[in-house]
User: Which sequence fits this backbone?
């Protein structure tokens, strides 16, 4: 597609429920990233996928968080047993290759998650 | 781990220059970026600088890099109300596999 697409744009869920957030990267982009943006905070790195390599999961805050990327394209971030502190904007980005280029990333508009 | 810091707020008058500052800790960062985020939107890449440069100019934007002090700045000339947004500094870390972002600087442009 023309840009990075994320769905849903907004999600309100009850504490303890599971949620799935979807990211559809730009076609041909081999690298995909998930970040979390909390109010007044910078962007917190969560997970990084590059081609067929094992993902870098070093930023996932707990074992309630997981992500997968099927067929090297669409990615799903799953949060199990959501807590109020999970409320944030979840941003997905993709790039042609690893970040050490002048391309930077292209970001989606994010999913605003509110846990009540 | 890598730490990237920015001041949280900056207020300027329309027509003045804005200077947004950023400091980082990873001396091996090879690419450094500035992103802009407007309300309700994702981040938009504004400009970047490679670590072997000390200045880059792109229309109203000037990026200065002091690699010795690990200090990056973004100057916006003739600031307009449409420049009001949050500006994020980001640097490559982890061998270039990912970007570490600062907390963002909210720029408010007053008439």
Assistant:
């Amino acid at each position: 597609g023309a840009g990075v697409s994320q769905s849903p744009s907004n999600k309100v869920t009850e504490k303890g429920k599971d949620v799935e957030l979807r990211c559809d990267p730009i076609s041909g982009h081999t690298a995909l990233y998930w970040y979390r943006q909390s109010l007044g905070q910078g962007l917190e790195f969560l997970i990084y996928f590059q081609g067929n390599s094992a993902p870098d999961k070093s930023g996932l805050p707990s074992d309630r968080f997981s992500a997968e990327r099927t067929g090297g394209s669409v990615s799903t971030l799953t949060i199990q047993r959501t807590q109020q502190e999970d409320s944030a904007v979840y941003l997905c980005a993709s790039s042609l290759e690893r970040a050490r280029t002048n391309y930077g990333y292209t970001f989606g508009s994010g999913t605003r998650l509110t846990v009540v | 781990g890598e730490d990237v810091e920015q001041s949280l707020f900056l207020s300027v008058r329309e027509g003045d220059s804005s200077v947004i500052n950023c400091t980082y800790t990873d001396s091996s960062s090879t690419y450094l970026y500035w992103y802009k985020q407007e309300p309700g939107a994702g981040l938009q890449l504004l400009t970047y600088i490679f670590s072997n440069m000390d200045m880059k100019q792109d229309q109203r934007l000037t990026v200065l890099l002091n690699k010795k002090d690990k200090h990056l700045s973004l100057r916006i000339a003739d600031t307009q109300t449409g420049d009001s947004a949050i500006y994020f500094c980001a640097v490559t870390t982890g061998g270039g596999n990912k970007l570490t972002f600062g907390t963002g600087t909210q720029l408010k442009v007053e008439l």
